[in-house]
Amino acid sequence: TDNQRVILQITDVNDEPPYFINRPLPMQAVVKLNAAPNTPVFTLQARDPDKDHDIHYFLVRDRTGGRFEVDEKSGVVRTRGSEMFQLDMEYVLYVKAEDQNGRIDDKHFQSTPEERLSIVGGKRPPQFYLPKYEKTIPENAAKDADIISVKAKSFADREIRYTLKAKGQGAGTFNIGPTSGIVKLAKELNFEDVRQPHIYQLVVTATEDSGGFSTAVDLTIKVTDVNDNPPKFDLPDYQAHNIDEDIPIGSSILRVKARDEDSGTNAEITYSVSDDHFRVDNKGIIYNRKTLDADDNNAYYEFMVTATDRGEPAKEGTATIRIYTKNKNDEEPNFSQQVYTPNVDENAGPNTLVTTVVASDKDGDNVEFGFVGEARKSGQFVIEKMTGVIRLHNGPISLDRDKYELNVTAVDDGNCCPGGQHLRHTSTAVVVVFITDVNDNKPVFKDCASYHAKVEESAPNGSPVITVHATDEDKGVNGQVRYSIVQQPNQKGTKFTVDPETGDVTTNKVFDREGEDGKFVSVTVKATDNGDPSLEGVCSFTVEITDINDNPPLFDRQKYIENVKQDTNVGTNILRVSASDEDADNNGAIIYNLTSAANPGDLEYFEVQPESGWIILKKPLDRGEYEVIVTATDQGQTPLTSEVLVRLSIVDRANRPPVWDQRVYEPKRISENISVGQTVYSIKASSGIKDNPVVFYRIIRGSTAQTNKHDTFYLQQRPDNGDTWADIKVNHPLDYESIKEYNLTVRVE
Question: Nearest CA to 451 among 543, 517, 547, 545?
């Protein structure tokens, strides 16, 4: 959707008639007796709300014999003729205003009604702007507050003074400013005071200064009631005595009466009560809405009745109501609880206390206890009539059930009230005796030996592992089992969590099979019962961490550089590349392939055995250097790969490289706490060049931590009787739990 602002220009239509704005009314004026011709005596003024109005003024009827004329455009009324005007004579003209752009028909225009203009020769008394004045004020009007402003016009342009007089009652209640004409309240009003009228009839007289004329006008001031009186009850406290507690609902009990000194709606009263046991009607009669109860509140009801008037804002008054009731034997005994659930040990003996039932009667009666049918014994249980104490009987006890249910009764004696013995009341309760178990069996994981759980490495925290279950042959809370994980010694936190209620075991970390977690993780779950003291059983089992292909193959060197004799035979194994993959099974099985480096033609000379990594010569060598790239790819579902550069330098046929003193160096086992700087292996090679026995060693940095990527080992040359040895020494502390095996490559030149 889209919105567009539209501006509508409203074109005016000349449809409104003009109207006079001259004040005061009726129109009055004076003319000097010797006024010369064309002397202005009055100006007509009219307005028209239409935009294109064209107002013209006309003399409609002339009762003066042509002594005046009206200027059609300006509305000025002027004298005509040279004759003297007569003293005190009234000259009457009827005038109107027309809008000559507001045509009604061919002959008529929109116009004002005819207005009478009275002109008196010489002088005339002042004229009030209104023919009469009226004002309504509230009784709480402030003293000296302005009530109304009256104003008169002097035809002689003299200052006018005003006086105020009461026609009847109320003299001195109001006063008037002699020059301003503002009527003020001279003293406080009280609508409820019978000595003060509600309507004040006043006369305001306007008199010109210096003995001029005067005129009078009626002023009526009405006083209205203000809700300034709250309702008042005839009595502050109403009481009703000896009201039977079993009277029918809706019975009238007593009547209250409130009065309000205000008038009208301010004096109309409604009643309400503060206790929902009762209601009150508009006549003040109080009825009961519910059944009364003499056994509550010390046998009487006390509440408030409120009288509220309909003023704005409303006012209210209150009184206290007290209703005293008479008691009847109408209440049955009430047990402190409907079901009692005591516990008794399964090995309890005779006369053992089981529980005490308690009942009371709101009527004040005494209560007698028993089993249903007024019996004092039920099976192996007995009850005391007056105290409600229940015990095991004084005989052989055999509590072979989980629980026993007893129905007990409470009967009142009716002594509360006259004639109460003829209507006795009975109530019942249930006692469920639970036989408590002795906690002598610990929880047992019956299927512990068959738990074989697996979880995939990198599975998110909270992944399900297995659900364990333990049983406890005890009963009740002694047989309820909760599960927890037993933390392994020297372990920070737990690797698994278990739901205490269900036994669902979930992971508490993300496992790494190739890291410190390893392939198998042991977990111990403990089951604890809720007995006191509690007993516990444990179950230990192994969780297998299954492999995912999350590790790429890693070559044991960052690059391979070897010398190859030029006359090497085709089919000779030249160099073996080796990569390792920490994943398991197919995820860790590696296949090797050759790809070109800079010169694709180098691939024609070599091939690599896919599984062993041996690079084999395919055709005779005829250049000084070759470079190929070996790619190692694992066999995971989503294979991962890595590459290494192999640089082969071709040397002369007579070149004789150094020779190691052993064709194979056996694995060396060392302790993880070996000191830094200590020698772990010494190897030696002899120069193949006659009269040049010096050789140089260096340890090749691999691409993994296991192949010395982080310089965990270093090499130090050592001369000895004309030979040069290579001592491999520890450069950093070792940690068996992090890396269990290192594969080092040493190059000799």
Answer: 543
